[in-house]
Amino acid sequence: MVFVPEIKLKQKLQIKPLKTIHYRSVDGIYRGVVKEYLDELQTSGRQREFDRERATISRALPLKELEFYAKKGCSFVALIGRRVLGFILVQPLGWVGSAPRTLWLEYIAVGREHRYQGVGLSLLSAVKSYARQHDIQSMLATLNVDNAASRVLLTKSGFDVRDWMIAVYSE
User: Fold this and answer.
1) Considering just the CA atoms, what is the radius of gyration of the chain in Å?
2) Is 81 exposed, middle or buried (0-12, 13-18, 19+ CB in 10 A)?
3) Which domain CATH number covers 112?
4) DSSP 26-80
């Protein structure tokens, strides 16, 4: 599936399923986002939170984790040409009987220089399209309490942000 959204970038953005060829770029974006987050905690004087996060947050995405998401088929990358601008890591949750089928949006990130240009919305649109095609009725995402931009992104995309920790989207 290739999803071509309308966005603010000057070049043609494509949304494609996560593949092995994207792993290095996805990990690079992830590392950059983690560094930004830790730097923000430290420079804002929130030493206790910084110490907690520094001790627990993964500094890189393990290859096995990326392989896991790629095999699920519902994680995507945003590309201009071969350059990865952002990614979304998603997995289906197990369901039983008539329980609604649900996707768990575990991580969405866009490289700093491409934020606020529609890349995140395009990634979320691709996941919503995937959900419709696979008769999946809802999506869940967790939010970092310090990330107002994520809250705005999810709200713009139609998620019901019920508190600062969980966002829900239902068809």
Assistant:
1) 16
2) exposed
3) 3.40.630.30
4) HHHHHHHHHHHHHHHHHHTT-HHHHHHHHHHS-SS--HHHHHHHHHHT--EEEEE
Chain segment 95-129, per-residue pLDDT in tens? 666 666 889 999 999 999 999 999 999 999 999 99
Residue 128 inside a domain? The answer is yes
Instruction: Say how many domains are in the chain.
Output: 1
Do the beta carbons of residue 37 and residue 51 sit within 8 Å?
no
Q: Residue 159 has which token pair? A: 């998620």
CA distance 128 to 139: 8
- State how far the Cα of 109 lies from the Cα of 119, in Å rounded to an integer: 9
Residue pLDDT, tens place only, 8-33: 666 789 999 999 999 999 999 999 98
Q: Is residue 153 part of a domain?
A: yes
- The amino acid that residue 23 corresponds to is Y
pTM, to two decimals: 0.85
Task: List C-alpha distances in Å: 36 to 31, 32, 53, 112.
Answer: 9, 6, 12, 9
The strand pairing partners of 107, in sequence order, are 89
